[in-house]
Structures are given as structure tokens and as C-alpha cells.
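WARN retry 2 of 3 for item q-0093 after timeout on previous attempt; input resubmitted unchanged.
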Amino acid sequence: MTAAFVWTPSGPQPLDELLSARQGWREEGRVVISTNGCFDLLHPGHVRFLQQARAQGEVLIVGLNSDESVRQLKGPGRPLLGQEDRAAMLAALRCVDHVVVFSQPLANDLLALLRPDIHCKGGDYTAEALPEAEVIRQGGGQIRILPFAEGYSTTGLLGALRKGHPPAGG
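OK item q-0093 returned
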């Protein structure tokens, strides 16, 4: 697993430091939550989801797709914002404790290292069809599917903007 970098509200951190802290949290009995995604054009639906994810435990680690993996998943022209900008915005949210940029399309390698207690995804997924399900369960974690914030999606926002129709607030 190649992590481009780990970002915290106070700035970059080596992955080894995060993994060491993770072991300490485990020993203290703190519940570590993970989620992952592209988070290109951060919007209110993302923020609500991340707040809900953080409410599931005590430490929220967000796996962020690298620029290259976003291109593989979303196609040319994406991401709109580079990985460092996306990571900095996520880390600035009070509900996010750490952001780890990973270079693969799926977060499986990162999740195998982190071994979160709970992995959260949005309501547009099911636990059975989640690509990360096996690695989460092998690490002893649970999967929680959180409600989908209707009316918000990066693809939908981009489509509206391209048509010259800025989306109204939710």
C-alpha cells in the first residue's frame, strides 16, 4: 500500500505515526471509524455523511483516492481539485481526525493496515456489495451503511454547472 501522505488538521504526518497511534487507540479501547472516497467538490452531503460517520466512534480516518485513482474511477477531467487540496479541506472539518491518500482505486490495502472498528459508507451502497467488505470483516470490523443525503452528488453538481444551471442549496 502506497500512501501519498497522511494529513491531519495540524498538517502532514508519516503513515507510520498514524499506524502507531492506531495501535495506541486500540489499547485504550477507542473506537476507530473509517470511510473512503474521492471527495471531489466537497459538498454538504459529504459533510453530513462525515459527521454521521464520526458519531459512530471516537476517531475518524478518511481514505482519500489519489488524483490518479480518481481518474481511473471517474474518467478524464477528474478530479477537479488535487489530492492535497481535497485532503486539506477534509482535514479542516472538525469531524475528521486524519486523511490518508491512497493510490489504488479501492481502499482495501489501506483498510487492511488500519483495521478500523467500523467502516462507514453512504446509502448508495449495500454491505453485501461493498468492495471493502471482506477486508473489513477479516480485520474484525463492522460495516455501517449511513443514510444517503438526497440531492447532493459531485456528478450531479458538475452536470448542473455544465448546463449553466447552478444547483440551489439544500
